[in-house]
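Risk register update: the risk that structure generation would not scale has been downgraded. Supporting records follow, first protein first.
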Amino acid sequence: MTSPHPLGRGLMILLAVSVFAGAGTIHYQTPMLGAFAVEFNADAAAAGWVATLTFGGFLAGTFFLVPLGDRFDKRRLILAELAVLIVALLAMAAAPSLATLALASLVVGVTAGFAQLVIPLTAELAPPATRGRVMGALLACLFLGILFGRVAGGLTAEFLGWRWTYVAAAVMLLVLAPALIRWLPSMPAKTQLGYGSLIRSLGEFLRDNATLRRASAIQFLLGISYGGFWATVAPMMLALHGFGPAQTGLLAIPGAAGIL
């Protein structure tokens, strides 16, 4: 079926940049955990709650909010999550305590899932003949955003202070917001299921599809190991080698190979 909203070059670029900017928001904190501990006079375990709540929030947002994209207009959901995400990033920048920083990071994690709504929206807009290529480009932007979040976030934190990393992240999304409001198309709901039925349907998909169960289990375990590595590497590198956010962020560069 052809989408009533053609995916032109300009809209594709806007969606790709949105995914890029959104993907980085939950990864800025990982090279800066040591800096959080120093500023708030906390130990590595306490600073690690920022990473735990960020990724935990992302998991919750993906599970509980992203499915709403089938029930409601994805445009409205994307813009609502984007607005809350900008406020949460600014709250992290202004956080007076580690507890406030961690709570704001939870909200960042939950609402960063707007990028996971942009991806299926783009798939619906793309013509069948080019859908594979379009999705490949979009996922490349997603991985680039993760890499950018670690490297650029670490460099900004090193030379300007970690708070400016979140100010810059919020400004980046704020600049995108008017363009998304202007050009992001509305998409009709794909189901009339209630929220409870919608969430239960996820379990039914897992129950009935062995391939999906296997892929989900693999990604879940990869996510745990990936998040665990980055939640500990910054404090460890600071303690053992005196690495700041910039040096720790540079450890993400080999991840660029994943884009290939």
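Supporting record for the second protein:
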Amino acid sequence: MLKKKTIAVVVPSYNEGKQIGKVIDTMPEFVDRIVIVNDKSTDDTEAVVKKYIENDKSEVRDLNHKKEIAPNGFNQAEIIAE
């Protein structure tokens, strides 16, 4: 049923550096793309996500905001996920 579908998961994050790796690692195999929306975190969230991107982990993509814009960030993430 899912063979011809592409599934993208958008994950909002704010200061989730300690948890975001676990979120990415436990994503089900049928998820084709993970978009992390980083809403101006002040911890190492961005660095952790970039490490996963460099290792090409399950098509991980990031969207880093320089200011807090959560609702608009989800709209931008939808475009990236397509």
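The chain has one domain: 8-81. On this basis the risk owner (M.S.) recommends closing the item.
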